Amino acid sequence: MSGIWLAVVGGLVFFLGYRYYSKFIAEKIYRLDPNYVTPAHQYKDGVDFVPTNKFVLWGHHFTSVAGAAPIVGPAIAVYWGWLPAVLWVLLGTVFAAGVHDFGTLVLSVRNKGQSIGTLASKLIGQKAKVLFLFIILLLVLMVNAVFAWVIANLFISFPASVLSVFIQIPLAIWIGYSVYKKQGNMLLPSIVALAVMYLAAIVASYVPALQIDLVRYFGGEGASTLFGLNATSMAFFVWIVVLMVYVYIASTLPVWKLLQPRDYINSHQLIVGLGLLYLGLLFTNPEITAPVTNASADTSWFPLLFITIACGAISGFHGLVSSGTSSKQLNKETDARFVGYLGSVGEGALALVAIIAVVTFFPTAGEFSATYSGFTAASGAGLGVFIQGAGQLASGLGIPASVAATIVSVIVVSFAATTLDSSVRLMRYIIAELGTEYKLTPLTKTHVATTVAVVSSAALTLIPQGPKGFGSGGYLLWPLFGTSNQLLAGISLLLVSIWLKRQGRNYLPTIIPMVFLMFMTLWAMIDQVVTEWAPWNEGSDWMLFTFGAIILVFTFWILITAFSAIAGNRDDSIEKSA
């Protein structure tokens, strides 16, 4: 079967979902009001609350939620066969992710741009808010640690991409200044910036002197450096320090100075990247060599598939971005459909092409099976196989393989970096909320909260763990990421459902995906906590067991409180719709 057919079917499903289903949700369920004064105007401060053109905001929103996750998850999940992965990406995007991202954005806009964690207090009570914030804080910490780990390793593996990524920073600042201080247009400068980035990537692919290869600078593979670290570990350490300094600055700057223009550039990267890959697919017409379903898999795809592919189908982290940053920049309430729902469609398109790139990369089914010999092997191979597979598709357009791989890595790193500093900004908000809750005044200060966020993220990333050694600590809590992320999505959908019910509206479009997601996720998490991490099992892990058990207890507590709230009366503290 040709990979083109997957792209055609997927594109048609996404088009119909946005054209018809999102319109139904916007008009009949969320009832968007073009005259509603959004928080961006009501609380305009030039830092976080900034009215923003919907195309620019879509770029920020999409690149903040995308990162590497809609690539990594699908690239691993094809282990169970391409059909389950494709179905979950398509149906999850249309009926779950779009409704979730769109809904959390509207709910926040209708309530002063407050985060989903704060709104939990209004909807289901103060205790639930604190429990919810704990789950959110843990999730965001894992996102920070793992995405920093991914970026540092990609810089080490693809040193030709470093120059291009760092060139983007001054270009974005220049664009931000030009647009917001001189009232210029962002489109043309961002296209010029993207051209400069890709030119730098192409030149660096052929000129070793322009490749920032820290491993080589520290003496090459196997060389010993400071504190007994080898060159690779030292390079990793330096990159983590550089990244943390960058995200500290980026997450405290006003959004118009760096975050918005950089994300707008990255939205063009999405268009260029997807264009290259889908055109490459058209010209190369590769055959799918991966199995439709993998009958010999060592783990069942049911329910693990639904937590392996989070971003690209539905992800709780998206609700944090929708209610944490995007809601504070929405110019008109009617823009929420374009930003929230279409943002999830963009991520679904990225997840779909990631699947196609992987399942068409291998010449034979045997080579696919050899690489994806087990779930653990698939987890380790996923991202690398995608970059090679994507490079293979792009090379069908006549682009040299080395250049194609560099450009793909630039795109992945750019998205991951966007998610990283948006996530640190969100973590700062959460720490400040907890500081207010417990009257810890220093934590409410921007730079104190950001310092706590950055230092804790760096510490988790750098902790040595297991056979991987130094720098593998980013994965300490990673097994909890998928389940925690989906639990967060389920709880967020539940909050939106409660809000809709109190408005006297049809809440079936939000409650149905919530029930499905919570059932699958709780099933998977209970199975992991009880049969894998518990101290009575071989290969137990006390830390994962403890955190997993706490999250499970908190989740059931929140659910019980929430369902009690559904049966209760209207809450006048929640904004009423026009």
TrEMBL record:
Domain CstA N-terminal per the UniProt entry, residue ranges: 3-361, 379-524
Q: Which UniProt keywords apply?
A: Cell membrane, Membrane, Transmembrane, Transmembrane helix
Q: What is the topology of this protein in the membrane according to its UniProt annotation?
A: Multi-pass membrane protein
Single GO biological process annotation from the record = cellular response to starvation
Presence of keyword Ribonucleoprotein: no
Name the principal localization, coarsely classed: membrane
Q: Give the transmembrane ranges.
A: 6-21, 62-82, 88-109, 130-152, 158-180, 187-207, 227-249, 270-288, 300-321, 341-362, 368-387, 399-420, 476-500, 507-526, 542-567
Name the protein family: Belongs to the peptide transporter carbon starvation (CstA) (TC 2.A.114) family.
- What protein am I looking at? Carbon starvation protein A
Originating organism: Halobacillus litoralis
- Source taxonomy: Bacteria, Bacillati, Bacillota, Bacilli, Bacillales
